[in-house]
């Protein structure tokens, strides 16, 4: 495992499964931006950039898809499932962890972190040279008045103060690898079944891609199905791609 050591001596280096290599960052460095930059330069798949601090956990995984981007975008919900499984295994059993279509993480009904995704191309028919999924998770209470924004929360505010961020990072990568292998062996159907039981906001009003309507769920490729008064619109996952050069 390569990389720099975290600034906080109490934070130990995470241990990842074979074929994954960790690279620690510190200060304000953004692992998602760094992972995109390294991927663009040709780093190996399996690189895990991470920045674990007292108040926030940030990390990003580099993938090298062998399928067109339209199919490879499944890495976003796949990593979301991996995170849900990881936190579910480490947190108190009563904790409710859900995922939004856009990559949001919802804990006990409030927003608590986000998954980002970027790739070397935005053409759904092209096999990307690389694809990166990033995780940003608030750990400590925000500001001097915890709970002053009821629509947002942190792990500590939800009773997860005993969850070690490094262990959560390790578990995220490990559980994501389990689902990656299952997707490779069995296709998208098991992922779709698992994700459908975790998705937040089905049946609620939503706005995406210039359309407003009711979020009905997704198609087999995890495209959002948005129903308005006239028709059902399909919003592909590729609309969630972030610009790594921003």
TrEMBL record:
InterPro entries: aa-tRNA-synth_II/BPL/LPL, BPL_LPL_catalytic, DUF4444
Taxonomy, superkingdom: Bacteria
The BPL/LPL catalytic domain, residue ranges: 16-196
Pfam families on file: BPL_LplA_LipB_2, DUF4444
Domain DUF4444: 205-243
This protein's name: Biotin-(Acetyl-CoA carboxylase) ligase
Originating organism: Profundibacterium mesophilum KAUST100406-0324
Taxonomic placement: Bacteria, Pseudomonadati, Pseudomonadota, Alphaproteobacteria, Rhodobacterales
